[in-house]
Amino acid sequence: MKRWTILVAFLLVAALAGARGVWGTPTGVSPGPAAALPSSESAAAPKPAEASPEAATDAAADAAAAYKARQEAALKAKEFARTRRTLTSTMRSRPGIDFERTSVKNVLMYLGEVGNFGIVFDKALEEAGIDLEARTVSIRVSRVSYEKAIELVLPRECGYRVGPGYVLITTLEKSWLPLRTATYSIRLALAQVPDFTDAPRFEVGDVLQSATSAAGGGGFGELFGGGATTTTDQDQATPERIIELIQKFVRNENDRHIAPWADEGGPATITYLGGQLIITQTDHGHQAVRKLLSMIE
C-alpha cells in the first residue's frame, strides 16, 4: 500500500512538470511568442557605411582640380580680352614704326614687345615653306593700331589668330579656323535690293563705316557714289538675291580675315532655311555680314 502511494505521487509530479515545460516543449506545440522575438542586436537599425579616408581624399582632390580649372579659364578669358583691346588700340610707340629692309620676324617681335603681348610662330609656317626671318619688309607708319601694323607687315599668304596674351602667326588658311556658325533673320517682305552696275571693290569695314556716317543717310545710293538706282519686281529681295550680295561684298579679296566661300573653294558656307540665313564664317566675316544686312533691310 505504501509503495502504491509513492508511485501515484511520482506520476502526479511528472505530469505537472511536463505541463509547465520543465521537460521541454511538448510534441506538436509551437514555441511561444517570446521565442520569436529578435535579439537586441538584430533589432537595431543598420548603420550607414562610413566613407573611407581614400574616398574623402579623392573627393577633395576633384574639388580642388575643378576650382583650379575655373580659375585658369577665367584668367585666360581676361588675358584674351586684354590682348584684343591692345591690338585694336593705337600703338604707343612715337612717332610710329620705321624699318628699312628688316626681317618680318624682327618687326613682329618688336610690335609684341611694345604692345606687351607675345608673338608665337606656328610650325605650319615652316611646313608651308614660309621663312619670316629671311623675308624683309620696309615700313614707315604712325598712329595705327597694332592689328593694322601686323597686317601691313605680314605677307599675303600669312595670317594670325589672337590668344590669351599672345598672337599666333600662322598660314592664311589656318588663321581662319575655327569657323563659327550663326543664323541671321532676313525680312523678305520689306526689303528691296537695288541693282547696281559696275560696283567697285572696297574694304567692307571702311566702306560700311563711311556709308553709315554719310550726311543725309543716303544708304546704298550714296555708298556707290550717289548713282541713281532703280527698283523693279526683279529686284525684289529673295534669299538667292541676298546670298548673292553677301558673297559679292563679303569676300576674302577685300579682307584676309574673311574665309573664301565654298563656291570659291574655301571653307565658308551660307544656306537659307525657313526665313533665316545659316552662315559659317570667321568672326571678321560675321561682322561684315551683320553690317551689310543692316543696310539692305
Detail the poorly predicted runs.
21-37, 214-229
Strand content: 15-25%
Q: Helix count, per DSSP?
A: 12
What is the arithmetic mean of pLDDT? 78
Order of helices and strands: HHHHEHEHEHEEHEHHHEEH
Shape: elongated
Structure summary:
By secondary structure, this protein is an alpha+beta fold.
Can you give a write-up of this model?
By secondary structure, this protein is α+β, with helices and mostly antiparallel strands. Among the domains are: 97-175, 3-Layer(bab) Sandwich (Phage tail protein beta-alpha-beta fold); 180-296, no CATH class. Helices cover 43% and strands 15% of the residues. The chain has twelve helices and eight strands. It has helices at 2-19, 33-36, 40-43, 53-88, 104-115, 123-127, 146-153, 172-175, 204-212, 220-223, 239-249, 283-296, and strands at 97-103, 118-121, 136-141, 158-163, 166-171, 180-185, 269-273, 276-281. The strands form three sheets. The protein has a three-stranded mixed sheet with strand order 2-5-4. A three-stranded antiparallel sheet has the order 6-8-7. The protein has a two-stranded antiparallel sheet with strand order 1-3. A hairpin with a 2-residue loop joins strand 7 (269-273) and strand 8 (276-281). The longest helix is centred in the N-terminal third of the chain and has 36 residues, at 53-88. The protein is elongated and about 145 Å long. The N and C termini lie far apart (136 Å). Residues 21-37 and 214-229 have low confidence and may be disordered.
